[in-house]
Specification:
Blueprint: H1 4-16, H2 34-45, H3 56-65, H4 70-84, H5 94-99, H6 106-114
Helix pairs in contact: 2-6, 3-4
């Protein structure tokens, strides 16, 4: 995953530096599982959060039971299942190259967002 601050910094680099005209970039950070994401939120918030993997059919039924139209529920459940399988992660180093440093990890982004301002 990639955090908004890193994506914004990459956009600044592309818009303010030479050599990016016509270029295409795959922007992503270090991969993580949803179990790892839940553990990070548990740590940061100080309350147990557990990721429970459910089938597409079960998730679709839950969403339709909450009033989501069946077609939308099926699409959301399918997209979330793909996310859980890591289909949106990329091995590309484009983001790190644009930033000039490693991308912020999901763990660090969550910790940073939780810090008092």
């Amino acid at each position: 995953g990639a955090g908004r601050a890193d994506l914004a910094a990459a956009a600044v680099a592309v818009l303010t530096q030479e050599g990016h005209l016509g270029a295409t970039y795959e922007l992503g950070g270090a991969p993580f599982t949803l179990t790892e994401l839940a553990a990070t939120f548990s740590e940061v918030l100080g309350t147990p959060i557990v990721y429970r993997d459910v089938s597409v059919a079960e998730y679709t039924a839950t969403l339709t039971g909450a009033g989501v139209p069946p077609e939308m529920a099926a699409a959301v459940a399918d997209a979330d299942a793909g996310l859980a399988r890591g289909e949106l992660f990329t091995a590309s180093e484009d983001l790190a190259k644009l930033l000039g440093r490693p991308a912020t990890t999901a763990h660090d982004a969550i910790r940073n967002a939780a810090e008092p301002r």
